[in-house]
TrEMBL record:
Belongs to the carotenoid oxygenase family. One of its GO terms (biological process) is carotene catabolic process. GO terms for cellular component: chloroplast stroma. This is Uncharacterized protein.
Length: 540
């Protein structure tokens, strides 16, 4: 039987030969089987070292190839897009000293936090090469959180402070470490350039397939052989093992006392609300490996959270339920849809999930014919599906649960987009929309317009429009504790004035929606336009 005793004796001797060689020599003399095992371990160790060295060399060669073949260039912004330009991290929580108006005494203590793209290295990137051009699209800037802290001192006076920080995803850290943009844009551009960019960013999926097939073939063979196989796999791994960067730039949400930044290209990243540092990815014990919606919903009354993720291959849409404590994935079901609809939102009632199957679809094979991966299929259908929270794969497909939308034309009854959104002039094609105000829909009240018969059924809409050259982002509703009405509370939003280049947070009384804000908090630095905001109330 193999024992540790001979090893101890030999390793403590002062022989002129190396301890390892002496050990091998001794074991050869004592028994053949341990000697063989030792040879295996030695070989494995050497193979591991060789693998690391080769992998490193290989990656360096690839990086060198990318550096010499592709030219990165910052995408310019139009004059009307000046507040989409990124800002630096302010570095520390900074006290706000100027407030116009007064923050109400019954406004809750907490943090108003908003996510948004803030491209690293100055701007979104385009690359050109012999394969053509590819570039980032406007939703691809790295996520940056902007937080405004509402705290009360002992004498009940408000103390307001501000901080901002990048969400530090794995890919953010890679580019930060290398001090330059490294991921090749692959979302839009010339098809060959997009394809090559995807391949050079990763071949991880192919490797996974190779890995799985080989696991079956090689299972049970010797450790040395297995190491040889792993060496081969390591050798062919390309640069980042990810098709594109993890942005984490779309939303912020809270579940079970933890706060997460999310976007649809990765799982959420947990953040520490105190200093906005990134604590890690939320993989739910490895059970959710798909993208994760930026808009999960808590089931009314249960506190469980409904999530979903889309995938370019079947099942195209997977729905899950996370436990109340955020520790377990209690439900995961792939729905039987026949296309990858770009599902951004889900409706959740006390009993059902409401699924939107729209003709905005994702299909990577379109790249081969030069069409965009994400496309609105003009002639295709739209459906709304209803499924029980714990339904199976067929739930969303049963005849009674699908409402087909016969007409693709959706009438925006009673609401005028031009009153709260500026899409830019026609000369500025593809200009990013900017929001000039807010709309409040009073669903149980009718609009007081009697001039046209066909408008009698319109619901009441109120507008809060900002002053000229002011635009907002990240609006959210902060409910009043123990409010008597559904709209008892406040609307809070980041507002930027392009004339003065000053950013503020506006607080509007939701019941006096069209009136002037009751308070404007003047921020210590510019806050670029972003995406979704949330108010995280302080726990008592
Ligand atoms: Fe959204």
């Amino acid at each position: 039987m193999y024992t540790l005793q001979p090893r101890v004796c030999i390793s403590s001797s002062r022989s002129s030969i190396s301890p390892k060689a002496a050990r091998l020599s001794h074991q050869k003399a004592s028994t053949g089987k341990p000697y063989f095992r030792e040879i295996q371990e030695h070989l494995s160790s050497k193979l591991g070292e060789a693998s690391n060295a080769m992998n490193s060399t290989y990656q360096q060669l690839l990086d060198s190839f990318v550096d010499h073949t592709f030219t990165f260039k910052c995408q310019p912004l139009r004059p009307t897009e000046s507040n989409f330009a990124p800002v630096d991290e302010i570095g520390e929580i900074t006290r706000v000293i100027e407030i116009e108006g007064e923050i109400p005494a019954d406004f809750p203590e907490g943090v108003y936090i908003r996510n948004g793209g803030n491209p690293l290295y100055g701007a979104l990137q385009s690359v050109s090469s012999i394969f053509g051009q590819s570039h980032n699209i406007w939703v691809e800037g790295e996520g940056m959180l902007h937080a405004v802290y509402f705290c009360k001192s002992n004498n009940s006076t408000w103390s307001i402070s501000y901080n901002n920080r990048y969400v530090q995803s794995e890919t953010f850290r890679i580019e930060k470490e290398r001090q330059k943009p490294c991921f090749l844009p692959m979302t839009d551009g010339n098809p060959p350039a997009m394809l090559i960019a995807s391949v050079l960013n990763t071949v991880w999926c192919l490797l996974l397939l190779l890995h799985r097939i080989s696991s079956v073939i090689f299972l049970g063979l010797s450790q040395t052989f297995w190491k040889c196989y792993m060496l081969t796999v390591e050798f062919v791994q390309l640069r980042f093992r990810k098709v594109m960067k993890s942005m984490s730039n779309t939303s912020v949400f809270e579940h079970a006392g933890r706060v997460y930044a999310a976007s649809e290209d990765d799982v959420p990243h947990e953040v520490d609300l105190h200093n906005l540092s990134t604590l890690g990815s939320w993989h739910l014990g490895g059970e959710w490996k798909l993208p994760f919606t930026a808009h999960p919903k808590v089931i009314p009354g249960s506190k469980e959270m409904v999530i979903f993720g889309i995938n370019a291959v079947q099942p195209f849409l997977t729905v899950g339920i996370i436990s109340e404590d955020g520790e377990k994935l209690k439900q995961k079901v792939g729905l039987k849809l026949d296309r990858c609809t770009y599902c951004h939102e889900i409706g959740v009632t006390g009993t059902y999930n409401i699924i939107i199957d729209s003709p905005l679809t994702l299909n990577p094979t379109r790249m081969l014919r030069g069409a965009p991966v994400l496309e609105f299929e003009e002639e295709s259908y739209s459906r709304i599906g209803v499924m029980p929270h714990y339904g199976d794969a067929d739930s969303n497909h049963s005849a009674h649960s699908i409402l087909s939308i016969a007409s693709r034309k959706v009438m925006s009854k009673g609401i005028s987009c031009t009153k709260f959104c500026d899409y830019g002039s026609k000369a500025e094609e593809h200009a990013r929309p900017k929001f000039i105000g807010f709309a409040k829909l009073c669903l149980e009240e009718k609009q007081n317009i009697a001039t046209k018969i066909d408008r009698e059924d319109l619901i009441k809409v109120e507008y809060h429009q900002l002053a000229k050259n002011q635009f907002c982002s990240g609006v959210t509703f902060v409910p009043k504790a123990a409010g008597a009405h559904e709209d008892d509370g406040w609307i809070v939003s980041f507002v930027h004035d392009e004339e003065t280049n000053i950013s503020k947070v506006h607080i509007i009384d939701a019941r006096n929606f069209e009136s002037e804000p009751i308070a404007k908090i003047i921020l210590p630095q510019r806050v670029p336009y972003g995406l979704h905001g949330a108010f995280i109330t302080k726990r008592t």
